[in-house]
Amino acid sequence: MHCPFCRHSDSRVVDSRTSDDGSTIRRRRQCPECQRRFTTIETASLSVVKRSGVTEPFSREKIVNGVRKACQGRPVSEDDIALLAQRVEETLRGTGSAELDAHEIGLTILGPLRELDEVAYLRFASVYQAFDSLEDFEAAITSLRARRAVEDGEDGEADLLVVRPS
Ligand SMILES: [Zn+2]
C-alpha cells in the first residue's frame, strides 16, 4: 500500500479493527518514510454477472435504486429501503461466493420486500420475473394471500402455498 502523502511504496499496519457486521476491516497504517498515518478499509470483493454475461462490481446502491422504484408512492421510508438493501447484501455475502448472478440478487430481494410492502413486491416481481399476463399476477397474488392466511393462523388454506408464479 502506497503512502498517500509521500508515495513511499510501503506502509506498516499499526492497528486493525473489524466492523460490527464483520464485512469490513479498517487498518491504521504508518508510513516508515514520512511517519504519517492513514487508514485503509478492506472489504471482500463481490461481483455480479449480468444476464448479458458482463461482470460488474456489486453495488448496494443499485439494490436501493431498484427497490425505491418499486416502492414509489408506497408508505415505505428511505430507512426501510436502506435496511432492506443492507440485509440483502449481508445475505449475499453470507453465501460465501465472490461472484453472484443478477438473478440470484433479484431472488434475494423478493423475500424481504414482500415483508416490507406487498404492492412494491408485486411491482418488483412483475419486472424481475417478467410477468407477461394477468395470470402471472393472479398467481402471485394468490400466493401472497395464502402466505398471509398462514401467518394469520387460519387453517385450511396452507395448501394454496403450492400456487406459485411460473
Ligand atoms: Zn509517507
From TrEMBL:
One GO BP: negative regulation of DNA-templated transcription
Cofactor stoichiometry and binding remark: Binds 1 zinc ion.
Record's keyword annotation contains Mitochondrion: no
InterPro entries the UniProt entry points to: ATP-cone_dom, NrdR-like_N, RNR_NrdR-like
Zinc finger (unnamed): 3-34
Cofactors, names only: Zn(2+)
UniProt keyword Secreted present: no
Keywords assigned: ATP-binding, DNA-binding, Metal-binding, Nucleotide-binding, Repressor, Transcription, Transcription regulation, Zinc, Zinc-finger
Family designation: Belongs to the NrdR family.
Described purpose of this protein according to its UniProt entry: Negatively regulates transcription of bacterial ribonucleotide reductase nrd genes and operons by binding to NrdR-boxes.
PANTHER family associated with the record: TRANSCRIPTIONAL REPRESSOR NRDR (PTHR30455)
Protein name, UniProt field: Transcriptional repressor NrdR
Organism annotation: Cellulomonas carbonis T26
